TrEMBL record:
<keyword id="KW-0813">Transport</keyword>
<dbReference type="InterPro" id="IPR005876">
    <property type="entry name" value="Co_trans_ATP-bd"/>
</dbReference>
<dbReference type="InterPro" id="IPR003439">
    <property type="entry name" value="ABC_transporter-like_ATP-bd"/>
</dbReference>
<keyword id="KW-0547">Nucleotide-binding</keyword>
<comment type="similarity">
    <text>Belongs to the ABC transporter superfamily.</text>
</comment>
<feature type="domain" description="ABC transporter">
    <location>
        <begin position="7"/>
        <end position="242"/>
    </location>
</feature>
<keyword id="KW-0472">Membrane</keyword>
<dbReference type="Pfam" id="PF00005">
    <property type="entry name" value="ABC_tran"/>
</dbReference>
<keyword id="KW-1278">Translocase</keyword>
<comment type="function">
    <text>Part of an ABC transporter complex. Responsible for energy coupling to the transport system.</text>
</comment>
<dbReference type="InterPro" id="IPR003593">
    <property type="entry name" value="AAA+_ATPase"/>
</dbReference>
<dbReference type="InterPro" id="IPR027417">
    <property type="entry name" value="P-loop_NTPase"/>
</dbReference>
<dbReference type="InterPro" id="IPR050095">
    <property type="entry name" value="ECF_ABC_transporter_ATP-bd"/>
</dbReference>
<protein>
    <recommendedName>
        <fullName>ABC transporter ATP-binding protein</fullName>
    </recommendedName>
</protein>
<keyword id="KW-1003">Cell membrane</keyword>
<keyword id="KW-0067">ATP-binding</keyword>
<comment type="function">
    <text>Probably part of an ABC transporter complex. Responsible for energy coupling to the transport system.</text>
</comment>
Amino acid sequence: MSEPVLVALRGASFAYEDGPAVLSDLDFEVREGRALALLGRNGSGKTTLMRLLSGGLRPGSGGLAVEGQPVTYDRKGLTRLRTTVQLVVQDPDDQLFAASVAQDVSFGPLNLGLPDGEVRARVDEALAALDITALADRPTHLLSYGQRKRTAIAGAVAMRPRVLILDEPTAGLDPDGQERLLDTLGSLRRSGTTVVMATHDVDLALRWADDAALLTPSGPRTGPVAAMLSRTDLLRQAGLRLPWGIAATQLLRAQGLLEDTAPGPRSPEDLAALMAAPATRPIPADG
Ligand SMILES: Nc1ncnc2c1ncn2[C@@H]1O[C@H](COP(=O)(O)OP(=O)(O)O)[C@@H](O)[C@H]1O
Ligand SMILES: [Mg+2]
């Protein structure tokens, strides 16, 4: 992994008021262009870590840096951070507050003091990216959950962040809504946005991410997603199970149906393609 580090926490510790340390002496990096899945059991600190990365919380010790420059928690420093990193919180109702979709999405760019034309262009672009242009004038309280989720993401996208952080974005979406969201995140990635997602869905992480960060009691462990999600010791510590695709890969290898060096399936579609490929089809005993 040699991609430049966009955002980093160094030696960061954090405790909520009167509470025990949630994260201590934490080093954590977000690298440009690497889709990163942040995984861990409930209460392991995923949301806290994301709020530290996006400046909503301030580490008690240690610090946050954007492209190597320490973040200052004054107006100027936080504006610089917010134009680089945007967090979409888990519950859209914690994020949406304006009367209409377009008004809500325009809030961030307006707050940056951008000229009207620029604000309009960004809102149009963000609504199009989330496929909700037709909802622009709709009152936010009349939207479905999935539509509210897309509106909240559009609000973050309108800031044109280099890093988009999403806290359990697929939670509460139906299967079709999840697929649409993954497609949208794929388009954002192709247009140059680095995407970080917290989830406890190991199958989703394996399909979607380049890298995985597992939050274990002894700190986060980060690496290429397939390698990290094969580590039963780390999965156990993080309270997670073996992803379906890794289990299938292990079975295929044990049966001699997949070379040790060949990448395993990450989805049922991958598995179907693998089984259809001549190189991996079992050779009949008599031929
Ligand atoms: N606002 C808060 N005040 C006090 N404690 C909190 C608050 N938010 C989270 N915590 C505690 O911090 C720990 C980490 O929580 P969180 O970051 O929400 O984990 P996750 O997102 O992985 O479920 C938990 O023990 C939780 O109870
Ligand atoms: Mg959480």
